[in-house]
């Protein structure tokens, strides 16, 4: 049965393009602000330039560990992990902590030692864990990122882009365990061999300085400069902001987030559930045609400048009776700019009963043709 593809272009306020501008600038060498749900860009500056990412790397390390590890596992800290250079939570060789405790140490206090302990526990070595990290990056749609270390220490082959990091952050924030960790301002984990526990305080100042902030990670090396990935959610609208090599990263993020929340975010419906989207011909039915539509609404936020949402209705020209109400007849594929967003199933809104008189006539007609053809032979 031949299918038809109907394209409908919906004009909305929003941008899916890769060149989005506004009236302000940020200190960062590279920056981006995206709508976490759709990935659409609201503001960007040199967003595709490959740069070092410092400890924002640990976003990738954490979501990889959550995907491939067991949070209740007991991890034994190696000499290699305990002696890792840079920021530390003072792990000791042979010390035992749960994988969950190490993730908090890594994401709140940015412990490089904790990140290596996590990597070695999951994959046996830092090198093998980096393979998993790169796999997760590709799963998140980040194809201009390459990971070598779980900590983010400088390496020529360890890099990302602001756009990629925003994609990775959005991907990670869909995981409840990850969200719980990065939104925690203070946590306590054991400190083996001491009479007191470790108190971990999140380096992300936005958690207490910006309303709605709920993550994600800071980073710094001399080579990378100050790096920051942040998430905020207001009125159920989550934004992801990224700055790489920023002299004034806290204010950069506040500026970008305020810009979006103050000016945009109004919801608009692309598809409304249970509202007929059209009619389809039903061959051999009493009614001839029935209504079809979606069982769910698709709503997006209005963003910065005019762009287009394209809806591709992939449905057959006709279908045969009988057809029951609620049967799927096709789908609507939604694109924002040039980027695929999601697919929505389309269903019959009515029953289509078979026309028995027509059916009997057709059967007799076909039988008559068969007899005539046989007699001609």
Please outline the major beta sheet: 7 strands, mixed
Secondary-structure element string: EEEHEHEHHHHHEEHEEEHEEEEEEEEH
Mean pLDDT figure? 89
For the secondary structure, the number of strands is 18
Strand order of the largest sheet: 1-15-17-18-13-12-16
CATH class of the largest domain: Alpha Beta
Quick recap:
With 377 residues, the protein is an alpha+beta fold. It is 29% helix and 31% strand. A hairpin with an 8-residue loop joins strand 6 and strand 7.
Can you put this structure into words, describing what you see?
The chain is of the alpha+beta class and 377 residues long. It folds into two domains: 3-11 and 269-356, Peptidoglycan synthesis regulatory factor (PBP3), Domain 2 (Sandwich), CATH 2.60.410; 28-246, Beta-lactamase. It is built from ten helices and 18 strands. The chain has helices at 57-68, 79-82, 99-108, 112-123, 126-139, 162-172, 176-182, 206-209, 249-263, 356-376, and strands at 3-13, 30-35, 41-45, 74-76, 96-98, 186-189, 198-201, 213-221, 225-234, 237-244, 267-271, 278-283, 289-294, 298-301, 306-316, 318-320, 328-336, 339-348. The strands form five sheets. A seven-stranded mixed beta sheet has the order 1-15-17-18-13-12-16, with no helix packed on it. Strands 3-2-10-9-8 form a five-stranded antiparallel beta sheet, sandwiched between helices. A hairpin with a 5-residue loop joins strand 12 (278-283) and strand 13 (289-294). The protein starts with a strand and ends with a helix.
């Amino acid at each position: 049965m031949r299918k038809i593809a109907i394209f409908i272009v919906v004009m909305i306020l929003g941008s899916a393009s890769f060149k989005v501008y506004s009236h302000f600038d940020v200190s960062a060498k590279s920056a981006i602000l995206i709508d976490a749900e759709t990935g659409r860009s609201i503001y960007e500056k040199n967003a595709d330039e490959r740069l070092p990412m410092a400890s924002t790397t640990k976003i990738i390390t954490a979501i990889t560990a959550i995907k491939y590890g067991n949070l209740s596992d007991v991890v034994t800290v190696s000499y290699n992990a305990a002696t890792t250079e840079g920021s530390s939570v003072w792990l000791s060789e042979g010390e035992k902590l749960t994988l969950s405790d190490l993730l908090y140490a890594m994401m709140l206090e940015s412990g490089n030692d904790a990140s290596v302990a996590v990597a070695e526990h999951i994959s046996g070595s830092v090198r093998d864990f980096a393979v998993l990290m790169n796999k997760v990056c590709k799963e998140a749609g980040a194809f201009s990122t390459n990971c070598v270390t779980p900590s983010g220490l400088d390496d020529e082959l360890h890099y990302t882009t602001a756009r990629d990091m925003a994609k990775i952050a959005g991907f990670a924030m869909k995981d409840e365990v990850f969200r719980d960790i990065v939104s925690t301002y203070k946590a306590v984990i054991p400190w083996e061999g001491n009479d007191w526990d470790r108190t971990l305080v999140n380096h992300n100042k936005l958690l207490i300085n910006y309303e709605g902030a709920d993550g994600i990670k800071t980073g710094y090396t001399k080579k990378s400069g100050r790096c920051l990935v942040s998430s905020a959610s207001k009125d159920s609208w989550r934004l992801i902001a990224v700055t790489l090599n920023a002299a004034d990263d806290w204010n950069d993020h506040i500026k970008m987030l305020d810009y979006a929340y103050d000016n945009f975010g109004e919801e608009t419906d692309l598809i409304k559930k249970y509202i007929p989207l059209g009619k389809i011909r039903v061959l051999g039915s009493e009614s001839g045609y029935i209504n079809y539509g979606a069982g769910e609404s698709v709503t997006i936020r209005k963003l910065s400048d005019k762009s287009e949402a394209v809806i591709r209705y992939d449905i057959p020209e006709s279908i045969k009776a009988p057809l029951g109400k609620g049967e799927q007849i096709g789908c609507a594929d939604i694109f924002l700019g040039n980027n695929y967003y999601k697919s929505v199933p389309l269903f019959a809104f009515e029953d289509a009963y078979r026309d028995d008189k027509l059916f009997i006539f057709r059967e007799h007609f076909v039988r008559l043709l068969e007899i005539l053809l046989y007699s001609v032979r």
